[in-house]
Specification:
The structure is a single chain. Helices cover 30% and strands 38% of the residues. Strands 1, 2, 3, 4, 5 and 6 form a six-stranded antiparallel sheet that branches. Helix 1 packs across helix 2 and helix 3 crosses helix 4. The chain is elongated.
Length: 128
């Protein structure tokens, strides 16, 4: 499963110059994605670095879990698993193509929106 994109802020000499995903910032800097990603991994070097990235928000997908057309639970996969008592592994399977083929509209997991949460877990309205 692919990791959801995070929102980063790029700083140079203490000034925020760009905010966006790693590919956005890589394009802005004219660097490769992996070289830009390495800037984000060097948290311990922030104090001595001239430029660095800080993760400002994580993307979270919000789903609706439906049975026979009725909404049973809404939230992230983890929240739906907690609300329904179904394992997270099973909830993830409901989102797979094979589950869609087999269930024939009996059970559905539908992605309804994306939210970005900052380090204090508050919702951020960010356009990427």
């Amino acid at each position: 499963m692919a990791r959801q994109p995070s929102i980063f802020a790029y700083y140079k000499n203490g000034m925020k110059l760009k905010q966006g995903t790693i590919p956005d910032i890589a394009k802005y800097l004219g660097r490769s994605i992996s070289a830009t990603y390495n800037l984000a991994k060097t948290d311990h070097l922030k104090k001595c670095s001239k430029h660095y990235l800080i993760c400002v928000a994580e993307q979270v997908n919000i789903y609706e879990y439906k049975r026979d057309g009725h909404v049973i639970a809404t939230g992230t996969m983890q929240e739906i698993a907690e609300q329904t008592g179904i394992s997270k592994k099973t909830i993830r399977w409901y989102n797979s193509a094979s589950s869609v083929k087999r269930n024939m509209n009996y059970l559905k997991l539908i992605r309804t929106e994306e939210r970005y949460y900052d380090s204090e877990n508050t919702v951020q309205n960010m356009s990427v």
